[in-house]
Sequence to fold (415 residues):
Amino acid sequence: MMTRVENKIRSLLPTLKETYMYLHSHPELSMQEVETARYISKRLKDLGLEVHEGIGGTGVAAILRNGRGPVVMMRADMDALPMKEETGLSYASQWTTLNRTGEMVPVSHMCGHDMHMTWLLGTLEILSETKEDWQGTVVGIFQPGEETAEGSKAMIEGGLSDMIPKPDIILGQHLMQYCAGTVAIRGGQILTAGDSLEVTFFGKGGHGGMPQNAIDPVIMASSAVLRLQTIASREVAPSDQVVITVGSIQAGKVENIIPHEARLKLNVRTTDEKVREKVLEAIRRICEAEALASGASLMPEIKEINSFPLTVNDEGAAELIEGSFRKYFGNKTLKAEPIGASEDFSRFGRAWNVPYVYWFVGGTKKEIYEEALKSGTTGSLPGPHSPHWAPSLLPTLAVGIETMIIAASHWLRQK
Ligand SMILES: [Zn+2]
Ligand SMILES: [Zn+2]
Fold:
């Protein structure tokens, strides 16, 4: 089957390039992917697929039925980032857009979701043209809002499970700064859980020269910032990976007024569900204890900004796919190391309690990657969320389609 797929990809390449460049130069922010979803839906309808639109906002699902057999769900994400592209490419994004708070911001596909959409459109096109080679059902999911951890949840709450058949396996992939042409996969945990919180401490404002009449929330917040670091060093085992970063601290405007409130924004990364719960509980305990220590009459308010679940690949399914990748891509198949980024992809697997597998596809130009390898600087190559990241289109456009079809073929009955 793969020879036929390779030939199809070759003849599709001009269309794939065009699709990628169109999507790359028309980025939209999370949960605002209106034009992107319209474009995707039209392309899917042109293929003759059953298309469901507007799921959880802008989510799109396409169903390709081809007789009895397992259901394979493939997922791509559609959102871009509020950042300026600095690649200097001829098709670089020049756009600015209004974000949800009404601020004008630059917008660009610097996470590579444009590549993910192109891969999935290409995969669905090839599968719909090679129906005599396989049997079963393929569901393509184009989800909004991955960057904000909203999209998969919105689609599930928007009734996705009533629109598509229950999947037997869910597949997802992300473009990464590995060498173009390589793929990286592992069983078990591959991405961390990410939780972002906003903590507001309530004090009692007053004159900077008469602190005895005030309760200072700046002290509570400052003390909490330091004490929160003891969670990683004192409350969990050295083998458990925990990162707590306080990325924002805001209180007051001038030097001689004690403010009423102080606000922290923090980000937590963990690699184990039990540890995650323990860490989140410890954050609450420490913040409340700081408020008590200062004699505050109100406990701090802790609000979730976003929450990305852990991504843990099904061991058996990942092993099967890794074996096929090795057969097809040879030594260009790498063992992925778990990385410190997070995804909301696993929510789909959790929604039906079915296995899922997620892997990486390399996108850095070979010469650039090999140069970096020689100088030991692969760690500083531009990758997702870098304004300088310019993935090489070849062979990347083809590889992400090959990976999907190879992985899916374990479930789609071969004729
Ligand atoms: Zn991203
Ligand atoms: Zn991404």
